[in-house]
Specification:
Elements lengths: L1 H6 L11 E3 L10 H20 L7 E3 L1 E3 L3 E3 L7 E2 L4 H15 L4 E3 L16
Parallel strand pairs: 1-2, 3-6
Antiparallel strand pairs: 4-5
Length: 122
């Protein structure tokens, strides 16, 4: 709660803060301790936003890499990697749904074009 009071609340409404990211691509680190603390950290931050009456305006999420997908092309066959699907992502997705927060992903489109040798491709 102190973090929200000191680092978020003083800047609202002058700054239009829509979301706070808890880490970035935490699942890709492979750090089991860090991964296990991700959703609880997001819940704690959301609780602090509720206490400051900012939870309707500011959502809590975490961005993921495309590596959490076993397939993504075409998008209609997109699936989460086994092991992430129920154990890790289910509580995360439940939290996002309950709080109305977005699911965030870092697509890095640049890497899809690095093998192109045409001067205009990049």
């Amino acid at each position: 709660q102190d973090w929200v009071k000191e680092n978020v609340a003083p800047f609202v409404p002058a700054t239009n803060i829509l979301a706070i990211s808890v880490g970035s691509e935490i699942l890709s680190t492979g750090n089991k301790v860090l991964i296990s603390q991700l959703v609880p950290a997001m819940q704690n931050l959301h609780t602090a936003l509720v206490g400051a009456s900012l939870d309707k305006q500011i959502k809590v999420s975490t961005p993921h890499s495309l590596g959490i997908l076993s397939a993504s092309e075409p998008p209609s066959i997109g699936r989460f990697r086994r092991g992430y699907d129920r154990v890790i992502l289910k509580p995360l997705l439940n939290f996002l749904r309950t709080t109305g927060a977005p699911f965030m992903i870092n697509p890095y489109p640049y890497f899809g074009y690095t093998d192109k040798t045409l001067n205009y491709a990049l």
